[in-house]
Amino acid sequence: MKYGIHLNQEKAEFPALWQAHFIDYDALKGFLKTQMVDANVRLSTAFPSTHVFHWTPATPDEPDFGQLLAQRLALVSRLTPEFVAMLDKEVEKFNQFFVTIKAEIKSRIAHVLDTSRMARVAECEAALSDLLLLERFVFLNFTAVAKALKKHDKWSGLQIREPYLMRTSQLSFVVSTSLLQLKPELMGRLTDMLAEQNVSLSTLALPANGVMRATEALKDMAVAPPSEPPVSLKHAVLGNNAASPKLGPLVGLLHETQTVMISLRGPHGTDIIGGVLRCLSTHNCQIVDFSLSRLHHDVTFGVLVHLHNRDVDLFSDLAKTAQKWDGTLSFDVQDARLKASKLTDSAQFALSEAPYAKRVKYIATVLNERGLTPEFLSEWLAWLLYKKISVEQMRRLDSHTTLMCVEFRLSVPDELSPDEMKSELIAISTAHQTDVALQADNVFRRQKRLVVFDMDSTLIQQEVIDEIARITGIEAQVAEITERAMQGELDFKESLASRVALLKGTPVQALEDVKRILTFTDGAHYLCRALKSAGFKLAVISGGFLPLAKYVKAELGLDYAFANQLKVSADGTSLTGETVGPIVDATRKAELLEVIAQAEGIAIDQVVAVGDGANDLLMLGKASLGIAFNAKPRVQQQARARINQKSLANILYLMGYSESEAAELQLL
């Protein structure tokens, strides 16, 4: 709802005399809208986004840049003082009325609080109701002033809101604290009077910031603060008589709060945070939520508060704090009657969340070891906009001189298909040679406990059977079968049997020779050290051969190693060309992953699997996070995530670890 409409609706509920002294918000807005339209000196926003500023005028009638600026400066230098004079007149009208009404209400309250006479409940109710009405009158008008100034600053390009509000801090409606001090005493008196007349308050909830006297008097009555204002008193019983009809609306006024969004940006980080919090503490605000972002020394601190007592002096104090710390202050006041916290479908949202219903949270990790290019980031953000996906948070994970990895927290419309999104992201990733991993943002994302690796072309750079074949001179025949198997063109068991048969007669010593030439993938040791330090269980499950898998296990400090067992001759000197025991194929890999998880008491939602070939697909699908590492095209299409970078250490980014956190784990 537009504030002007809301203000007029609220204004209609006041007595006619009060209505005549409201700020004329519509007139102020009308002046700005009709007069300031061509006066904005902030040229970047004064013209449409498609406008081009030329070095020389495009037509004879078009003013040059200096003339354009001079015209607008002349306009704004004339119109802004006119607006300020107009606003001053409105503020003085409202402030003078406040002074008059305040004197009348103070006199009435003093009469009620006079202990030399017996005040009636109705008198106390009326005094308190008038006091609360005056508070509401002040806050509605002060908000109108603040919003009119905000519109002026937007349409003129000048920034006068903060200094103007600082001026108002000297006026009576801001500095008058005597009424605020009287309210607790008045509420306490009303509570005592009701208690004396045996009021049953089982259905009454007083304000959470209520008066100590009232709290003490009613502590045995099980009075609880409300979750939603107001609670009507229509069911309360006053002796044998019905409760005063004024009490229901009165309690509603007592419970009303203002929701205020405050943001202070500036170069003094902790001072800015402390300054805002001191203001909130001084004015008894309830902090609902906060958000903080930092760019080196510059900090933006945002806080959502509930303001009780309509204490408008808060805003002048905030303006002084902004001035003290060279900050830029912005705030937005939303009346509780506007239900500012009820944004959609009665759902409430944190400040860090996009306030839209029917959304699912995802984490997207974008990664390129050579650096994230502006071209990629532009296309990535364009895709997000096209899909109506909101960015809630961004966190840089790497510490390189060039931006390499960023984690995005996304709010995704729940009707979007994960498979469709993955398919489109693969196309963007491929075009820019940049990885995008999309994961559901849930409690298990950073609570993984088991990582299972393939060995060949994953933990190590070679295929071990090819290395054995190279030593024995049958490299070409074995390599052909291996490649067809990895592409999924051959049944794995048949291809393995064919390749192993070619190794018949190979000396067992060849396995030892292969160990000496194995090359571990970049980042393998770094990754495994970090994960072990973080308490992970690690396993290698390979379609290769057990002696080499055990060697890799020992070198990397893994907990488990499973692979195919080669049969050797009776004298133990050569291979027979056969295997012993179950074949570790795709199905067996997935089974072993589950067996290890069960043995360690780890949920599948806490398991990560990493592989590159077709025989890894079932294992990758079984784990909650399956990563295709420099994998074959078919595997990349089907895996939940993919990494096409040199280092295995990049897996830590997908698991939510920053580079500095990973480095710290190396030291344990």
What class do helices, strands and sheet pairing give?
alpha/beta
Shape category: elongated
Helical content class: 40-55%
CA radius of gyration: 36 Å
The CA-CA distance between the termini, in Å, is: 56 Å
Strand content: 15-25%
Number of helices: 26
Number of strands: 18
Strand order of the largest sheet: 15-14-13-12-16-17-18
Q: Largest beta sheet, briefly? A: 7 strands, mixed
Q: State mean pLDDT (0 to 100 scale).
A: 84
The low-pLDDT segments are 199-254, 336-347
Oligomer: single chain
What can you see in these coordinates?
The protein has 668 residues and is of the alpha/beta class. It is built from 26 helices and 18 strands. Strands 15-14-13-12-16-17-18 form a 7-stranded mixed sheet, with helices on both faces. A 4-stranded antiparallel sheet has the order 5-6-4-7. α23 (617-622) links the parallel β16 (607-611) and β17. α12 runs antiparallel to α13. It is elongated and about 115 Å long. The model is unreliable at 199-254 and 336-347 (pLDDT under 50).
